[in-house]
Design brief:
It contains 1 helix and 10 strands, in the order H-E-E-E-E-E-E-E-E-E-E. It has a 4-stranded mixed beta sheet with strand order 2-1-4-8, with no helix packed on it. About 21% of the residues have low confidence.
């Protein structure tokens, strides 16, 4: 009888993780849909690009990162899908997280917008 009781106690402790009181295991928050803005890049947020205008040299790659999720990753978030759609037809996927990059090989002005929001969410890249 004593062995059965000891076995039950050991099994109970193992089932609970055996961490005891005051466990110091780090708690990793669930991921949110936001991507850190790239250095020198553009953030795709809810209803705007930041910065909305940018000037770069020929041959420069510009990266956009999606930061359009709001709310708490523990209790639920809302992420809005956006795109980076240029007037010349080049476009990113319509997405609610991630990144997109474009290299500008020719000088000029490149206007773009979000396919979801149209002209209300627009930006310009000037390539010199």
């Amino acid at each position: 009888m004593k062995r059965v009781f000891v076995a039950l106690v050991v099994a109970s402790l193992c089932a609970c993780g055996g961490g005891g009181y005051g466990s110091t295991a780090p708690k990793t928050p669930p991921p949110n849909g936001n991507t850190p803005p790239p250095v020198g890049g553009i953030s795709v947020s809810n209803n705007y690009f930041s910065p909305a205008t940018k000037t770069v040299q020929v041959g420069t790659s510009v990266e956009w990162s999606w930061n359009s999720c709001t709310g708490d990753p523990y209790s639920g978030q809302t992420c809005v899908a956006h795109s980076v759609t240029f007037d010349d037809g080049t476009t990113s996927a319509t997405q609610d997280h991630g990144t997109y990059s474009r290299t500008f090989s020719t000088a000029g002005t490149y206007n773009y917008h979000c396919v979801t929001h149209g002209a209300a969410m627009a930006g310009t890249i000037t390539v010199q």
